[in-house]
Amino acid sequence: MKILIKNASELVTCSGTSPKKGEDMKKLNIIENGAVLVEEGIIKKVGKTEEILKEINESEYEVYDAKGKAVLPGFIDSHTHFVFGGYRADEYYLRLKGATYMEIMEKGGGIINSVEATRRASKDELIELGKKRLDSMLSFGVTTVEGKSGYGLDFDTEIKQLEVYKELNDIHPIDIIPTFLGAHSIPREYRCRNIEYIDFIIEKVLPYIKEKNLAQFVDVFCEKNVFSVDESRKLLLAAKMMGFKLKLHADEIVSLGGAELAAEVEAVSADHLLQASDKGIDMMAKRGVIATLLPATAFSLKENFARARYMIDNGLAVALASDFNPGSCFTENLSLVIALATLYMNMSLEEAITAVTINAAAAVGMEKEIGSIDVGKKADIIILEHPSYKFIPYHIGVSIVEKVFKNGKLIY
Ligand code: NIG
Ligand code: FE
């Protein structure tokens, strides 16, 4: 199968095979009147339309005319929790009346509510829900998504969630990168026995996940009243020894030293970082840890936004993601994430686009295969309704994605 996308008013390549830091985040490498050739799902040529047309016989290709439209790499949502049972609209309603996320958690609500519903849900129910959520993400131009467990907190349900991700990956065109987040909260059965729970994960759950290849990353919610820095370190180092890549929910509500820990254990990314210290940011920059920022969560929790400007100016590679989950951020809308990052985090639009493409690819360890329109990469490509990427945040809250190609196949 050979396809040609031609006449793109802006071919936004985001060219690169490693995460972009500092000034480089502004470089989108745009080709005006651009074209892309794809064979067997892989990008074969990228350039000006008139030059590419000289080199090929157009009749051999399935042709898509992108005249008056911008073409970009498929977006990568590198931080989500999209497989869960039940909803928490009642908690959101309480937050509208002034309750905080932490108050709700301390009264026994929050993540634990979703755990109960997820334990009750059958695998088939979770697969049906997952499919719908993936379809919605696809409509926003997402071609690869990271998905976390963490609404089971017992062996069977954590494994059930990871198996659901695996099945969804087989049946849905979006690629799913699975992350084990068994340390998302302390289950009721282990109340006040955090270390015993961490030991249970290390001894019983991680070896099984490794053997069945059910997750690439291990993540932990390192937060006041959840898992301390020492508990998180113990889990992350054990996971690293078993060959997992690492992520952290770090310094989201309280400045606890999560960013520093991410640097110490050489995590691929540290996520949230609303309260990350200068020292933690500096340490992350030195160790090349990606800062995955989740502005829709800060927005939804009415928290202050992460210091993206400071991070980029101090040499960090920043990625942006949705954090889609039933509690702190119930949205799969990456256009909204980009709008918030540019309105409230002082990121330029070019930096925000880099943050959902090549830098997000790096946050899931796939910067050599996806995240840009470069020869040799997978043909994960989106076409917008409009001539410029500048329309993405401008048309607030909706998707302007017209077509999505995954591995060179039109899927939306
Ligand atoms: O990334 N902070 C921890 N985990 C999620 C929220 C999960 C939930 O509330 O269900 C987050 O915000
Ligand atoms: Fe999260």
Automatic annotation (TrEMBL):
<protein>
    <recommendedName>
        <fullName>Imidazolonepropionase</fullName>
        <ecNumber>3.5.2.7</ecNumber>
    </recommendedName>
</protein>
<feature type="binding site">
    <location>
        <position position="249"/>
    </location>
    <ligand>
        <name>Fe(3+)</name>
    </ligand>
</feature>
<dbReference type="InterPro" id="IPR006680">
    <property type="entry name" value="Amidohydro-rel"/>
</dbReference>
<dbReference type="InterPro" id="IPR032466">
    <property type="entry name" value="Metal_Hydrolase"/>
</dbReference>
<keyword id="KW-0862">Zinc</keyword>
<feature type="binding site">
    <location>
        <position position="151"/>
    </location>
    <ligand>
        <name>4-imidazolone-5-propanoate</name>
    </ligand>
</feature>
<feature type="binding site">
    <location>
        <position position="249"/>
    </location>
    <ligand>
        <name>Zn(2+)</name>
    </ligand>
</feature>
<feature type="binding site">
    <location>
        <position position="252"/>
    </location>
    <ligand>
        <name>4-imidazolone-5-propanoate</name>
    </ligand>
</feature>
<feature type="binding site">
    <location>
        <position position="184"/>
    </location>
    <ligand>
        <name>4-imidazolone-5-propanoate</name>
    </ligand>
</feature>
<comment type="function">
    <text>Catalyzes the hydrolytic cleavage of the carbon-nitrogen bond in imidazolone-5-propanoate to yield N-formimidoyl-L-glutamate. It is the third step in the universal histidine degradation pathway.</text>
</comment>
<feature type="binding site">
    <location>
        <position position="79"/>
    </location>
    <ligand>
        <name>Zn(2+)</name>
    </ligand>
</feature>
<dbReference type="InterPro" id="IPR005920">
    <property type="entry name" value="HutI"/>
</dbReference>
<feature type="binding site">
    <location>
        <position position="323"/>
    </location>
    <ligand>
        <name>Zn(2+)</name>
    </ligand>
</feature>
<dbReference type="GO" id="GO:0008270">
    <property type="term" value="F:zinc ion binding"/>
</dbReference>
<dbReference type="GO" id="GO:0019556">
    <property type="term" value="P:L-histidine catabolic process to glutamate and formamide"/>
</dbReference>
<feature type="binding site">
    <location>
        <position position="81"/>
    </location>
    <ligand>
        <name>Zn(2+)</name>
    </ligand>
</feature>
<keyword id="KW-0479">Metal-binding</keyword>
<dbReference type="GO" id="GO:0050480">
    <property type="term" value="F:imidazolonepropionase activity"/>
</dbReference>
<dbReference type="GO" id="GO:0005506">
    <property type="term" value="F:iron ion binding"/>
</dbReference>
<keyword id="KW-0963">Cytoplasm</keyword>
<feature type="binding site">
    <location>
        <position position="323"/>
    </location>
    <ligand>
        <name>Fe(3+)</name>
    </ligand>
</feature>
<comment type="pathway">
    <text>Amino-acid degradation; L-histidine degradation into L-glutamate; N-formimidoyl-L-glutamate from L-histidine: step 3/3.</text>
</comment>
<feature type="binding site">
    <location>
        <position position="79"/>
    </location>
    <ligand>
        <name>Fe(3+)</name>
    </ligand>
</feature>
<feature type="binding site">
    <location>
        <position position="328"/>
    </location>
    <ligand>
        <name>4-imidazolone-5-propanoate</name>
    </ligand>
</feature>
<comment type="similarity">
    <text>Belongs to the metallo-dependent hydrolases superfamily. HutI family.</text>
</comment>
<feature type="binding site">
    <location>
        <position position="88"/>
    </location>
    <ligand>
        <name>4-imidazolone-5-propanoate</name>
    </ligand>
</feature>
<dbReference type="Pfam" id="PF01979">
    <property type="entry name" value="Amidohydro_1"/>
</dbReference>
<keyword id="KW-0408">Iron</keyword>
<dbReference type="InterPro" id="IPR011059">
    <property type="entry name" value="Metal-dep_hydrolase_composite"/>
</dbReference>
<feature type="binding site">
    <location>
        <position position="327"/>
    </location>
    <ligand>
        <name>N-formimidoyl-L-glutamate</name>
    </ligand>
</feature>
<feature type="domain" description="Amidohydrolase-related">
    <location>
        <begin position="71"/>
        <end position="410"/>
    </location>
</feature>
<dbReference type="GO" id="GO:0019557">
    <property type="term" value="P:L-histidine catabolic process to glutamate and formate"/>
</dbReference>
<dbReference type="GO" id="GO:0005737">
    <property type="term" value="C:cytoplasm"/>
</dbReference>
<feature type="binding site">
    <location>
        <position position="151"/>
    </location>
    <ligand>
        <name>N-formimidoyl-L-glutamate</name>
    </ligand>
</feature>
<keyword id="KW-0378">Hydrolase</keyword>
<keyword id="KW-0369">Histidine metabolism</keyword>
<feature type="binding site">
    <location>
        <position position="81"/>
    </location>
    <ligand>
        <name>Fe(3+)</name>
    </ligand>
</feature>
<feature type="binding site">
    <location>
        <position position="325"/>
    </location>
    <ligand>
        <name>N-formimidoyl-L-glutamate</name>
    </ligand>
</feature>
